[in-house]
Amino acid sequence: SVPVWANAGIAIGTGSSRAKFTINGEGGQVVEVTVPANFVMTRSGGAETLTVTLDPDLGATTTLLNSLGSAGSRPLNIGGSFSVPAATVTGLYTGTFDVSVEYQ
């Protein structure tokens, strides 16, 4: 098996979007996608945190598009949600999470 690693970060501002990846490999191959259930964002210049629950649009395994022997790909989008309690300190909260994709 050949693992492929990616790293994504989310910064919350006036807009939002999903973390977007493209999985590339040999068409028709099954890959295992590993995304953590959640990650923690920390306020810049402080110790306050928010926990983000992640929501990938693919299941744990997926098949790359196109046929065996040709180039294949599959888009992977990862969204998330979190609660902001009333006492949350205003600021820039950032964090990272790792995504891995491995041929099966």
Can you walk through the features of this model?
0% of the residues lie in helices and 59% in strands. With 104 residues, it is mainly beta. It has one domain (3-103). Residues 1-12 have low confidence and may be disordered. Strands 1, 2, 3, 4, 5, 6, 7 and 8 form an 8-stranded antiparallel beta sheet that branches. It has no helices and 8 strands.
Key features?
104 residues; 8 strands
What is the terminal-to-terminal distance?
7 Å
- From the helix content, strand content and strand pairing, which structural class follows? mainly beta
> What is the number of independent domains?
1
Give me the Rg, rounded.
Answer: 16 Å
Please give the count of helices: 0
Helix percent band: under 10%
What series of H and E elements makes up the topology? EEEEEEEE
Largest sheet: 8 strands, antiparallel
Q: Judging from the principal axes of the Cα atoms, what is the shape?
A: elongated
Strand share of the residues? over 45%
Unreliable parts? 1-12
The residue-averaged pLDDT reads 85
In total, the number of strands is 8
